[in-house]
Amino acid sequence: MRGREEVGASIDFAPLRRERTSSRAETPSSDCYPVRVAAPQAPVGNLLAISDLHISYAENRDIAAELEPESESDWLIIAGDVSEIVEDFEQILRLLAERFAKVIWVPGNHELWTHPQDAVQLRGEHRYRELVGICRRLGVLTPEDPYPLWTGEGGPAWIVPMFVGYDYSFYPPGARNKTEGLEIAYASGVVCSDEFLLHPDPHPSREDWCSARIAETERRLSELDDAYPTVLINHYPLVREPTDVLRYPEFAQWCGTQRTADWHRRFRASCVVYGHLHIPRITHHDGVPFHEVSLGYPREWRKHGHRHGLLRTVLPSGTTARLRRRRTAATTALAAGSARALRLTHHHPCGVAPAESALADRNAHSGAVLHALLHLRRDESPAASFTSFRWLPS
Ligand SMILES: [Fe+2]
């Protein structure tokens, strides 16, 4: 049996069973009991993600500047395309690094552009290293740092920021190689601006740069302790399937490489985080959730809204932003130690069990994780009573 200190919100159930002497009829309702609430553990936080902030757009800049953690332990993943302008990149990362417990960044193609309007005219590898240097001064983790171990909710898991580019191997329909793929793209008029702004120096080509990054990243991934799963973060999807829905299939060749197609299996991914496509959604590949976490351009998010919220919770998995808010509120209330009445609802495969049975089952479900479960009444302060409470299997 797990010790009670391992339960998410540190609620002491045992005294409840011992101290409840009144009959059920004497309680306010059949499933309401007085409880003693132990001091809660420090918040363990959530692993949140966003990408493609594109803060060159004023509306996006405003959104980025207002991103806030929900607990002091939240980590933020930024999966590339913050800005083409180095000064803007630094400004927004400094702001977010001051707010979140940890910020993790991987480069997108836009940061790697040598844009004519940017004061920094570095190219290729030198530009990337300049951005890494800025991140280091701000305390932001990059693909060049040791992979941290996430020990918050949903962990432990290795957090793996990667810089693995593309090599044109997501051929458009009708193409058998890069040359044919590019010919089709130029003929259709769909050509990524990378062809003009993303320089591979000192590598001979963008695909050579990609190949070097793959070799180095594979080596580091292979050396990780395989006792833990990974969260793989890259600007581009690691598998081709998410590009199947692109409006212009010619664009897929600038969206990744076939050489990472099995990485989520080989390297024990509990989830994959990426952007670039500006199609925020979750797909599953071999049972692994792939989170596309783009904000995207204003014309895009104005059209489809923020269907998954602005910040995606990637760990703990399956927890929506709404549930996270409830958990945060619940933790706050528990800290106040004022839970006068708790209504227990046990969601069990066999249906809703009586509260007492739920308590008895608590030990049987020692692997269960207490998730966000306490629904505070809107008109009450966090110090008021809870109205429901449930166990979810881990
Ligand atoms: Fe983008």
UniProtKB/TrEMBL annotation:
Domain of life: Bacteria
Sequence ranges assigned to domain Calcineurin-like phosphoesterase in this UniProt record: 47-280
Chain coiled-coil ranges: none
UniProt-listed Gene3D superfamilies: 3.60.21.10
Species this protein is from: Saccharopolyspora halophila
Pfam families xref list: Metallophos
Protein's recorded name: Calcineurin-like phosphoesterase domain-containing protein
